[in-house]
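Pasting two entries for a bug report.
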Amino acid sequence: MQIVIIGSGNVAYHMAKAFTQKGISLAQIFGRNEQELSKISEELNIPYSTFELKDADLYIICVSDNSVEEVSKIIAKKEALVAHTSGSLPKEVLAGDYRKASFYPLQTFSRSKELEYEKIPFFVEAENEEDQKVLLELASKISENVMESSHEKRKYIHLTAVFACNFVNHLFSRAKEISDSQEIPFDYFLPLIDETVKKIHEIEPKAAQTGPAVRNDRRVLQLHEQLLKGESLEIYKTMNHSIQEMYEL
């Protein structure tokens, strides 16, 4: 099967790397950013182009959600199977007269961070049973954790991921702002962060909650509020309110 990846960002890079590491050859990686495409091509030994899209059986579109529909219009082959990697978009957003699907890897992708691809959950949806089987088998060559998923379910998977990953990482950034402001090395907090994440592998997140809000320690809460201002103060109040609402305090 001839496979082309469309895109040059983090998702495209990691999908291309996952395929090549698992011995799945790619016919081409295609996109607009020649500088990034050339880097991927050189590292992974994949042909690339910015102007001529190669004929393929499967095109995997790895671009931002805002660009998926427009990018999908460049694929003219009616016999092709085309899949996007978005967690929030339906397969019907693909704007072409070809077979449509989604091929969603549930992970946060950064170019410089190595990943264990076999641990990444993949959620697959296609228009027919045959294409579904093809994509499930393809994903299974990369990952040990592959499932079928409708768009309706995938929307909630993506929403959960935003809470569990994007919001948490933003709080890390806010925490580092506080530690930096007092010249406290953020490295001091890494064991705490690591243990917090490890703990929820064994304990339900709700049961693992600690801190002044769940203890209803008003003295500490008031002290912290005096140390904060602006948006960080609002985040602090909102998070504590949410914790206390969950535990009915």
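Entry 2 (this is the one that rendered wrong in the viewer):
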Amino acid sequence: MHKLFEQKWFYKLFSLLLAIVLVAFVDNTQVNTNNQTKVQETASTEKSLKMALQVSVDTDKYYVTGYPSKVKVTLEGPNALVTSAVNTQNFRVYIDLSKQGVGSHQVPIKVSGLPNQVSCKLSQKSVKVNIQKRKSRTLPVQIGYNKNAVAQGYDIGTPTVSPETVEVTGAQSEVKAIDRVQAQLVVPNGST
């Protein structure tokens, strides 16, 4: 047996067998890794998150009220795509009011920007909104305080406020209903 190890052809044959075993091992390892990666990519998952509800409307012309600020969205699909969508939030949840006029409307909630393999379920399919003409109005700021809180024998000077005027913007009917803007001063009883 000792003479077998001294032969050159033995080392060549042994090296060849060892090389074949190593190639087979590496090839098998890569096939298993690729299969695991494919399984992870195609594994389905479901995740929920709250997304800001965006409004598509001419904000210079209209003022919209009545819609929720956030909507619950449930995404379902391949694990990698759903995780990516949840982490980056590079899709949009919105209502399109561009073809709506003044008044109350029931409008569908839409989603855009998701991969085709990802499905989306919304906590609500539509929302009721109130669209009114936008109105801005500048009003002076008045100062209010309890005159009876000042101790007897003391006079109140002329109060000043900064800024002296403010701009109020909102739905036309609500802005028309505002008769004044007042900064309320808290004066402790018996102030000197």
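Dev reply: Rendering is fixed now. As a check, the viewer should reflect this: The two ends are 116 Å apart (CA to CA).
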